[in-house]
Amino acid sequence: MTDSVPSGYRLDGKLALVTGGGRGIGRMITRGLLDQGARVVISSRKQADLDATVAELSSRGDVSAFVADLSTEQGVQNLAAHVQGLSDTLHVLVNNAGANWGAGIDDFPASAWDRVLSVNVKGVFGLTQALLPQLRAASTDDDPARVINIGSIDGLRAPAPGINNFSYSASKAGVHMVTQHLATTLAPRILVNAIAPGPFETKMTEVLMKNGREALESHVPLRRIGRPADISGTVEFLTGPGSTYITGAILPLDGGIVARPVDPRDRSRPGLHGPGPVLRPSRGTEPSQARGHDGGGRPGSTLCPSRLRARQRRADGIDCLRDQLTPGSEVEPDVARHSPHRRSPRC
Ligand SMILES: NC(=O)c1ccc[n+]([C@@H]2O[C@H](COP(=O)([O-])OP(=O)(O)OC[C@H]3O[C@@H](n4cnc5c(N)ncnc54)[C@H](OP(=O)(O)O)[C@@H]3O)[C@@H](O)[C@H]2O)c1
């Protein structure tokens, strides 16, 4: 046992698997792992995304791809068999692949539960289970193997009213619980933790970013969208020697969104899918006075009319976004196309 954490920790000689590594957050994570020296396998359903990512990142290190649909048991087994064929040991498994579905409460289809839960929850458990022999073989007392599941802040608290991603939010709460359950089951040989991201710019959040990035950023306490270094740095920590006493943790990576105080009078809450409180005058004040809790002001502070108008415009933008997100939004385009509930993304 060492007394201090070595700096500049590297993953040379170690194998990592990143599901959904062909684009978005998975690609950000893959790039970080390659920069640390790991050999990385990425997987998803679309060969084209995988090929593009391998071509883009192979100058950074040893990256290869395997096509698998993780919503099916066969896909999970095929990917596990592929990894087993490459190596007897797997040091890092990042369960990142995820799907979403949006539709109003009256129309939300049963199939959207199967589709989302199969990959987001069942796939996470199944792949981890299938790769246990390789994860166990990679573990040492000082350096256990790591499983990192990508949850969401939408699994930490209910998204705002009107954000109709029912199976997604439930699935992400499921990811967090699977993380804790596996962590206690697989201790002490394998560490299992989850990252719960807030907004990052990816295909999943395409509509949101295109139509209201500024409004969304204004509701993040740190006033910005997540950057690639935010996620790769968190994964670096969770794969390195500084985190060997951490398992079963759900780490929000959200610029402070879930830490924000909730005003029960607000009809929405800040979040990835339902940005912040709606501006309105606080009780007993003139319309030009408002609680300064959505834009960085102090509670109860008095706003000048121009600031109030600016805040109202942001709040309006957020309401508009909420409407846009209602059905078929934050859904992969191919799902949205086939959703009978899809709406025009116009306010
Ligand atoms: N972006 C955000 O703001 C945000 C916030 C919180 C959490 N997250 C989570 O972060 C993870 C990555 O999402 P992202 O934002 O990067 O979105 P994304 O660009 O849509 O990436 C999703 C990835 O999952 C793969 N995938 C989807 N269904 C799959 C299936 N059945 N089998 C295998 N792979 C599948 C996709 O590839 P194929 O389509 O080719 O299969 C893609 O590579 C997800 O778990 C998501 O829930 C994202």
Automatic annotation (TrEMBL):
Residues 261-347 are annotated as: Disordered. Keywords: NADP, Oxidoreductase. It comes from Tomitella cavernea. The keyword Membrane does not apply. InterPro entries: NAD(P)-bd_dom_sf (IPR036291), SDR_fam (IPR002347), Sec_Metab_Biosynth_SDR (IPR052178). The lineage of its organism: Bacteria, Bacillati, Actinomycetota, Actinomycetes, Mycobacteriales. PANTHER family: 7-ALPHA-HYDROXYSTEROID DEHYDROGENASE, 7ALPHA-HYDROXYSTEROID DEHYDROGENASE. Pfam families: adh_short (PF00106). Belongs to the short-chain dehydrogenases/reductases (SDR) family. It comes from the Bacteria. This is SDR family oxidoreductase. SUPFAM superfamilies: NAD(P)-binding Rossmann-fold domains (SSF51735). Residues 313-322 have a biased composition (Basic and acidic residues). Residues 338-347 have a biased composition (Basic residues).
